[in-house]
Design brief:
Layout lengths: L1 E3 L8 E3 L9 E8 L5 E6 L13 E10 L5 H5 L1 E6 L5 E4 L6 E8 L10 E7 L13 E12 L1
Antiparallel strand pairs: 1-4, 2-3, 3-10, 4-9, 5-8, 5-10, 6-7, 6-9
């Protein structure tokens, strides 16, 4: 189950426009701006309020950001993270226009009772110097190939 609770995306579709593996991916139309800075999704491997033992396994998935290139300053103000069960985060490379494979070892003891794994994409689009004015970045975030193994 997926939950998107944010201001940068209002929903998602199952898409054939891009797929990392197979024919389909999840497509989230996103708009990032000064007022809409966060995309937040949670993957629940079981039904809500149930847990799974994922300790010692690895979470893998792929994402694709489709949209205009980011100015270098925007890349400094953008980050993708996988939120760990212990409350920490693992930085994920940020890229526009290509699939990025993500692999997160689930070594923390808290993964023995895993309920959900969060994925966040934070972006504050800035224009080029000297003004560095706030911009709006509109595109699509594709997510595919989630595995815990």
């Amino acid at each position: 189950m997926l939950a998107s609770d944010n201001t940068a995306a209002a929903g998602f579709t199952v898409s054939t426009a891009r797929a990392f593996d197979g024919l389909y991916s999840l497509a989230f139309p996103v708009t990032f701006s000064n007022a809409q800075r966060l995309f937040d999704m949670i993957l629940y491997p079981c039904t809500l309020s149930n847990s799974a033992n994922a300790q010692g396994k690895t979470l893998t998935f792929a994402y694709y950001l489709d949209g205009p290139a980011l100015y270098p300053n925007s890349q400094e103000s953008a980050a993708a993270n996988v939120i760990t069960a212990s409350g920490g985060s693992v930085a994920v490379p940020l890229s526009v226009g290509s699939w990025v494979q993500v692999s997160v070892p689930l070594t923390d003891p808290s993964y023995a009772a895993l309920e959900g794994i969060g994925y966040q994409l934070f972006m504050l689009p800035l224009g080029p110097p000297p003004g560095n004015v706030d911009l709006t970045w509109t595109g699509t975030l594709y997510l595919d190939d989630f595995k815990v193994q």
